[in-house]
Write a structure and sequence with these properties.
heterodimer, A: about 240 residues, alpha+beta, 7-stranded mixed beta sheet, 3-stranded antiparallel beta sheet, 3 helices, elongated, B: about 200 residues, 5-stranded antiparallel beta sheet, about 50% helix
């Protein structure tokens, strides 16, 4: 009887077992790498979105027109600045700033900047949006050295984010211990949280991936923020 | 059977570098997140300090010398930074009645700095205290360094910044150099690193 070369059943079973073990290991590694990649990418997108909004906001606020008693009237009424802490009010922050129509700091041009925020709604990707409206304005001389602020045509509105902003909170804070607003300099405390809709499939993971930034700023549009010297030069200009 | 075991061991060792790569990717993300948060904190603090005059900074330094590192006075940690500004505020408040100069403006600027809200991991929800969410110095170590220059000429020599040479020689006679460093510790998950931001505070006399 001739001996034929063949694979035994045991060998086949062992091979299948080894291949299965390897497949499971490869699947686990690839799966965790792709999940982590997705989480990292979505986290970085959240970070970039928050940074982009914050940087724009900081540039606008740092170029803000300082308060002056010369601003006698504003066309169409309105305040020299507006900060809304009411959650349901979409208009969060409005002030005047030394920017040109393209949004670059300018010593000659002035614009009104308004930040509005639409709260996120479940299953609606077009919410959780921050919008920035830039309206060119002109200071026209009034009586007794006063200035009137007149809005010009050409207002532009820019959508600041694609990913959903879940917190856009701006508060004016008067530090404790000050007897009145005139006794100290109030500051702005800003909170921003971005939680994109994309990335990890689980809502819990997406929430964990949310990125928050906060900032403390001294805007020049608060009456108390301007010194006598600045008031003098503002008047001279 | 031995061949199979050896093959398995070799394959396992081959996959180990993949795990390493994956952990590097995570560290990169954590690093970017840390840098963004730290830069935002440091730039805000510098912007607030720039509102002070040289004299206000000098009062704070005289009242609270901090620790010394070379020519720098160093304030390490959130509490030390706030205490620095608080000491200047205390000085002005105690001497408010006897002082001949107008110090209301200085106090108005120092008060928010002395009460600067702590860096938080996230916004507190209802019923949560901010203290629970405070970023500890172990995670993000905040360090402020200050160096005073008596006159502009010496600061020109010390900074050796080419752009400074183009500035007019007169005008700035008293200058302070302020530097904010934020160090991230390994407990944050990313690599140990730090960011530096600096600014010059000067009085026009």
């Amino acid at each position: 009887m001739t001996k034929r070369k063949a694979i035994t059943l045991t060998e086949i079973m062992v091979s299948i077992l080894v291949i299965s073990l390897l497949s499971v290991a490869v699947y686990k590694i690839l799966s965790s790498v792709f999940t982590q990649f997705s989480k990292n990418t979505s986290k970085l997108s959240n970070v970039r979105t928050a940074s982009k909004i914050f940087e724009r906001l900081k540039i606008d606020i740092r170029a803000a027109v300082p308060y002056s008693e010369r601003f006698a009237s504003i066309s169409g009424g309105g305040e020299f600045y507006k900060i809304s802490e009411n959650e349901d009010d979409p208009e969060k922050l409005t002030f005047y700033t030394n920017l040109d129509e393209h949004g670059y700091p300018s010593s000659e041009k002035t614009a009104k900047v308004s930040y509005t925020y639409e709260k996120p709604q479940t299953n609606n990707k077009n919410t959780g949006i921050v919008r920035r409206t830039l309206t060119p304005v002109e200071f026209t001389p009034g009586t007794d050295g006063a200035l009137n602020i007149v809005e010009k045509a050409g207002a532009t509105t820019e959508k600041m984010n694609e990913l959903s902003v879940t917190i856009f909170d701006i508060k004016k804070v008067v530090p404790d211990g000050a007897e009145s607003e005139e006794d100290t300099i109030p500051y702005l405390r800003i909170w921003l949280m971005v939680q994109g809709d994309e990335g990890p499939s689980s809502a819990a993971l997406r929430a964990k991936n949310a990125f928050q930034l906060s900032s403390v700023l001294f805007p020049r549009f608060f009456e108390a923020a301007i010194s006598q010297e600045e008031e003098f030069w503002q008047y001279k200009r | 059977m031995l061949e199979i075991v050896v093959t398995l061991v070799i394959l396992t060792l081959t996959f180990l570098p993949l795990y390493r790569l994956f952990s590097y990717g995570t560290q990169g993300t954590v690093s970017t997140v840390n840098e963004t948060a730290a830069t935002s904190y440091a730039s805000d603090l510098l912007e607030l300090v720039k509102e002070l005059t040289f004299q206000d900074l000098k009062v704070c330094l005289d009242e609270n010398p901090g620790t010394t590192e070379g020519d720098f006075r160093v304030y390490s940690g959130d509490d030390a930074i706030k205490a620095f500004f608080q000491s200047g505020l205390d000085f002005y408040e105690q001497g408010a009645e006897t002082h001949s100069i107008n110090i209301e403006g200085a106090m108005g600027h120092l008060r928010p700095l002395a009460q600067l809200p702590p860096m938080l991991y996230r916004q507190p929800q209802e019923g949560e205290s901010a203290d629970e969410l405070k970023v500890s110095d172990d995670d993000f170590k905040r360090i402020m360094r200050i160096k005073l220059y008596d006159n502009w000429e010496s600061s020109l020599k010390q900074t050796s910044n080419p752009s400074v040479d183009a500035w007019p020689e007169m005008g700035f006679v008293k200058t302070a150099y302020v530097e904010v460093e934020v160090q991230f510790k390994r407990s944050q998950g990313g690599p140990e690193a730090s960011i530096f931001l600096s600014s010059i505070v000067s009085d026009t006399l």
